[in-house]
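Sample intake sheet
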Amino acid sequence: MLRFVLKRFAYMIITIFIVITATFFMMHSIPGNPFASPKKLPAQTVKNINKKYGLDKPITTQYVLFMENLVLHGDLGESYQYPGLTVNSIIAQRAPVSGELGGEALILGFALGIILGIVAAFKKNQWQDYTVMFIAILGIAIPSFVLAALLQYFFTVKFSVFPTSGWGGFKYTILPALSMALGTIAVYARFMRSNCIEVIGQDYIMTAEAKGVSKVALVYKHVLRNAIMPAITMLGPQIAMIFTGTFVIEVIFSIPGIGRYFVSCVSDRDYPVILGTTIFVAILYIISVFVVDVLYGFIDPRIRLSGGKK
């Protein structure tokens, strides 16, 4: 098992290095000047700004300095548009907001999706199954920003049940979380339905039913444990979506999260913030996949045994 974990960890470090390197050079290959403005700045002013941020150095030197600060100090640099404000502080202030909103949506989507998928499988070709599949089709067909606008209209404008926008407590997260969770519910409901139907058809399930195993025990001990394994694999990448999936929703509901800040920094060409945010999300994604791989190895010994033979 130790060999399996170390191998996955090495892959994770290599992938993170590649992502950081590729992101850095792609960001600096974008044409244009982050300090461009309608009014042309004096040449000496532009020169001083470039010198302050190290933009007058060769691109390879900038890369080496960036990696040195990142690896040795964990420093992602300073914002161009907000002098004195570091990228680290921006992420530290904004990421918890996005994490709370995205985490709530992921938990809601995962839990309801699993439950609805199991119900649809056990009630195959009945009205419960058709209802769940209808919800799943809606969740896939309706974009989150369209659903967000509809929820805002009905529950804030029409009936004034929830606040229209802003951030200030649990009630402010309900509509944004629902907007994001519907797609997740749809994915897991469809996925669990097909997995459960396949598991239910296995011989050991029929044997358990013949022995008089209760419905609850059958679902929990036999069906759920075997059918949920592929869903756990999907859960890893979606942890990173806690942050990336909130970008548009945060703008619609005026939520002060990292997604809304990222969108504004793209328009302002604030390269350090864009680069730092991208690296943050990429590292979170890679680490989440690594954790899921390790958990998968613990849950199913066959995976680490086959991995050790390679």
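Comment: The chain has a mean pLDDT of 81. Residues 91-309 form a domain with the MetI-like fold fold (CATH 1.10.3720.10).
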